[in-house]
Amino acid sequence: MVKEVLLVFKTHLDIGYTDYAASIKEKYLKGYLPAAVRVARESEGSDCPFVWTTGAWLIEEALKTDDGTLDAAIRDGLVTWHAMPFTVHTEYMNRALFEACLDVSQRLDERYGRKTIAAKMTDVPGHTAGIVPLFAACGVELLHIGVNPGTPVPKVPEIFRWRHDGAEITVIYSGEYGGVCEYGEVALAFGFTGDNCGPQGGEQLRAVYQNLRQRYPGAAVRAATLDDMAKALRGADLPVIEGEIGDSWIYGAAADPKKTSAFRHILRTVPSFAGMDLNDSLLLVPEHTWGMSHNFFDQENKTDWKPDELEACLTRGTIERSWEEQREYVVRAADQLGVDLTDAVTVEKPDTSSMTPFDGKPRSEVSYQLFTWADYERYYHAYVRDNNVGSFLKVGMPSVPGGIYEPHVTGAWLDGETSVFRLAFDSEIRDFCGLPELWLLERADYVELRWFGKRANRLPEAFWLKLPEVKDGVELLKLGEWIDPEKSIYMKTLHAMWAVRGPEYEIESLDAPLAAPYGRRLLTWNEPLGEQDLYFNLYNNVWNTNFPLWYSDDAKFRFRISHRP
Fold first, then answer.
1. Domains and CATH numbers, the chain
2. What's the whole-model pTM score?
3. Checking phi first, is residue 376 left (phi over 0); if not, alpha (psi -120 to 50) or beta?
């Protein structure tokens, strides 16, 4: 029987989604945090005390301009942080940047003489096992994952030890942002408010306590921290999970190739971020909000889908500015770190003037996929847990000639070991979707695809590349750990990675963040995998929540190939 309820008060921070990111930050620093301190002070000594928990990033940013009010509230235990700065897509990062995420809470710990041992990530449904040894190395014992209510929850126990590479942490998995979790005589409960809604107060605060006291009559309900639950679970006899979980939202990471190319270039260039304050730049790139909600565009533009319609749309600038705001994080990071982005973002057509024309075909396979409403309906019924339709579907999209299209060679040149191919799609699908001109460069140790002249297209689409080296037995490099996708508990079909390898080869993907080990599997869930080849997903706009809805920049995708002894 539950004798004690540990009540944690939180709100879900989206740095974007409901507004521009800068406006969201200002709202928290000038509105929500002061309100949380006020509610906490007013409730001191009452039977409904209030302690606000938030990510470490918000606290550290607020302290930079604090007049002493927040500092005093922290020292009095009224406002606290957990070990993560905010919710991130962990697969999108590398080890050094994830360690920089943990540095934020560690800096606060040092300032206030404490040790944070619990972390919280909300909304994003899953993470890579590579986080386990990194959490454990800095003393984090507990991770609470609160899954978006529209998304399937991995088939794992509610509470378990997650073990990987000789390390382990305790995980609580919830099918909602917070919820209630019981273990023996202790329950962890959340007083959660929704996306960027701020803290409770007054009647709302009292209602949280009343509901829990009715649910657990006789139990002591107290305002607590996640660290309190971590301590309560020490020594608990819990099931052990070993294996990858993964992120079923990660396909959105391919929605802005230019941003991702620059981001990955910075992470390859700078080996460590120790001692650096990246709060206003690089740290924000993997945060799980990549712009405004699709509703900011959908409400006024229900018929603007194809390239001609989008180009004539006068209101597209509102949502596009939110994507530019996200790109600016990368630019600021490059300036801060002294990294030249020229090579990452410059895309030029190959000079074939001194090369020899030849009658050849590429070894690599390029393809374009256009999705239909039927694809979304199938995905919706297989994947979505509730009626959160607009977030996962392209509501209102027109009928399209869906399918997979491959370009044909319109020119081929040879220079020593380098082959260059110009590729084009058939005019009907090219004009309908605004498809780009493609150039493919191939060597035994290198493949690069460049495109030019892509038009903005809101219709759901994807570009894929298959390299001939990829054979069976693929492993994926995530957060510095080689992961076998076959052993993934949750997500098998699409993964973020930095490289792939098999028994005879290793391929480093410099620009494209996604690999599909079992074929071109977007908008699929729990379907038989079968025998399929690995494809790299170069771009897609399939997500309809707050990833970019279209893309019209030139782009390049580079792959370094080495053959293992």
1. 4-246 (3.20.110.10), 252-563 (no CATH)
2. 0.97
3. alpha
